[in-house]
Amino acid sequence: MAGATRAPKRYAADLAQQRDALHEAIEMHPIGIVHSPYKERFAAPRQPSGDAVAEIHLLPEHTMRLALQDLDRFSHIWVIYWMHLNQGWNPTVIPPREPRVRRGVLATRAPHRPNRLGLSAVRLLGIEDTVLRIGCLDMLDGTPVLDIKPYIPYSDAIPDASNGWLDDSDHGQVPADACDRYRLT
Length: 185
Fold this sequence. Notes:
Oligomer: single chain
Distance between the termini: 54 Å
CATH class: Mainly Beta
């Protein structure tokens, strides 16, 4: 088809359609469920930490054996999940440590968010069939898993990233008992 021309892309029209789509509901379906030693919200750590071990059982209807191919070569994974026990949200929250200053929820890791999405980097201890054993977690028992991605140190760790308002105190420092996921050497 020599000499054929393509119609120009209509970026402005595409943008208008995207804006309209923002008001539509987004449908997601869990791909698995967490079986965790943490049964109550107050018992779970505020950030992934500790020696607890849990399992993510992937649902069989998603042909997960194929989807898991090569994941076992990574030491850590990102788990995107639905915080199923949270109800409602607040635009501002008081983070748990001093100083007790109200902050915008999007500038914190508070669980009461506009959408109940959670994101945790956890240690991948092993995979057997469609069950992932994980450590260094903060997810509750029964948590629906929406997606899993590999943790990739060269792109997921940003050494010169700022700690925002956490730099105003010692909150920007990694606690001594934090998971080894912070030690990337």
